[in-house]
């Protein structure tokens, strides 16, 4: 039985419109933004609305009347009668069962909805290609819990792709939400094994502590409530990720370059590797070391082009040390004869930046010993299989090297998907590869130089990746910092807890004011989602991570 | 003679009693009554070369019930649409009341009236004696008939409450305005019923003519009322209004808001009336304790205020204000009503 909670009020100042309507409720009725209500409408149809704003109003003409009502400012004054008041709710129209969009009429009854109504209203029933993305809890009294599904074609292609997650560190649980979605995707694809044209794999960059270095280990602290949400509501196996491989930066002592403490254990199980970059095969990527260096004249780019040119002296070199020695010669005074197009000053600038990164990084190493689990990252990625999860640890690397590795990962996936690999057939390569990177602002913020090679690669992925099956799941603290072309191409946006300054930016212009302030109060594990399939923004929750959580980072 | 059995010589402060009652969360008043009417000249009719107005009226009487500070709602509502026409219109009829009954029935069967869901309760007549005052006097006579009907409705509502035993010694009713109803042909029996029904009813008037209030030496009491200190009441006086019949009233004044905040000396002063029911009361006046108790409870009704909503905010009691607004909200708009004709 539906619970009637109020009636529509349409006044001269606040009329019902095609988009919104207002209704009153008793002042003690608990209702909150994002709750769905339904209204009787013409031709026996029902209009659904989502609560946007709730105000409490009384018949008090002014604040002064309030003051006078307390015996002219006596804070202890008691009244025999409470001032007459009601709650006044603004709701956004999200649909009508008869597709009638004439405004709802004054005095019509407003009720809470049941589970079926809510699914219909929000477009959650009969979602094609369902992929769990959380659950909604509606109404504080007699709570209804409803699982929410994306149409996977709008998250990981082909209809729409890319996910952007924003929210402040820690409180928003951005990584956990991305992993929750990726686990749901892996689960879905592992259950459906007989579709050769549709498969998925994941490449995840670990940028913080040991966050993602236990993806294939269970979370022992997962409580029964969350377990039940996984199994009963979302139909996701409460098991950690499968087919996980970890790639750590190379160093003689792994602990020097990673926060991971179980390299040997993982290595023993043949799921941990160390990646290196050799001069001979990776020299073309040097430009990605200079992501954040302003290069308006393209001199750094020219130098890298020169280094990679077969006619160049550098081309003959096979080790990083030899390269460094030769570079030292180029920056000597009076050596302009070596290259007439690039000035010594430019060589010096290049050398200075290169040496700065090279000196502190151990991943530039020319000998690869596969028996010890050493790999070239590009090669490892190009061998990715369906349902694989490759975790690439860059947490302890310096910022430039992190950008370098991320750029390399994106390039490698791009090459793989463009078919520039000779030894793999189309069928072997996963049709979709999801890349997850946190702190996207480091590589694709508005402040990153326009000619940054890593930004260029990120733009390629977001603008053309959908058709190739490369999907970017990216997270950052402040969405407003991100390059417009990157966020503009994301079909799905997840907003976690944010702060007041952020939500006042133009990116949040279309978000109703109450939702904006809700964004500043969201709890851990709560998100506001925007996806083309949903008729309005959704306030969803998701259960705690299913994989191992490291308490001290 | 005083309207109470132990009168003070001067005014009496009820501040401490009011405070004590408020701390105990006790309130004497549970019901609030207000009647309202709107009259319209809907047409003219000619008899004997004289033009008489036909007066239409909407009558509304509401009684609201307060069960708790946050629970205030409708208890009883009476709504009527009526017409008032000159008595000469029924001059040829042997049974004028039957004729008017049939006329009302015919009116209610008009398709347009039915469609709008409107039902006229009564068609009444006003005296069509020749007048010196011109046409406006007929209008006033027509209006007075509608006013009487409203008063009858008010009495009926009080009667309903009494029948349901809702008015008790802990559940009084405040009626907006005076209790001194003009006698409308009531006999002794009706008068007795009136008295007993109004045992738990007080009338609180926002506006009054202070000149009518006299002291023992029959001098005007107006300045004493104007100078009433905050939360003080005057001694109750007894009053018999000839037009009401053999009914005595105890009448007193109380200041519920300081004069310095008001725009006139009488703003913030309320006139309280109560019918003297028993013979003992008629002889000795009301029990002074009861007068104090009623007054202290009225004082405790002073907040909240309708400041900014009603010019008379200093004299308004909020539950009465709500009742008044409620009944007014039930009326058809003036344009709507006039366009019925």
Question: Can you offer a commentary on this structure?
Answer:
The complex is a heterodimer of chains A (553) and B (341). Helix content of chain A is 27%, strand content 22%. Chain A is α/β, with parallel strands linked by helices. Chain A folds into three domains: 4-117, no CATH class; 147-275 and 374-494 and 522-541, P-loop containing nucleotide triphosphate hydrolases (Rossmann fold), CATH 3.40.50.300; 280-360, no CATH class. The radius of gyration of chain A is 28 Å and the shape is elongated. The model of chain A has no long low-confidence stretch (mean pLDDT 89). The longest helix of chain B is centred in the middle third of the chain and has 29 residues, at 135-163. By secondary structure, chain B is α/β, with parallel strands linked by helices. Chain B has ten helices and eleven strands. Chain B has helices at residues 15-23, 96-108, 111-115, 135-163, 188-197, 222-226, 279-284, 288-299, 318-329, 334-338, and strands spanning 12-13, 29-47, 50-68, 71-86, 120-126, 172-176, 201-205, 232-233, 237-240, 248-255, 269-275. The mean pLDDT of chain B is 89. At the A-B interface, helix 1 of A face helix 9 of B.
Low-confidence stretches of chain A: none
- Give the total of beta strands of chain B: 11
Distance between the termini of chain A: 49 Å
Helix content of chain A: 25-40%
Tally of domains of chain B: 2
Mean pLDDT, all residues of chain A:
89
CATH fold field value of the largest domain in chain A: Rossmann fold
Structural descriptors:
heterodimer, A: 553 residues, alpha/beta, Rossmann fold, 3 domains, 11-stranded mixed sheet, 16 helices, B: alpha/beta, 9-stranded mixed sheet, two-stranded antiparallel ribbon, 10 helices, 11 strands
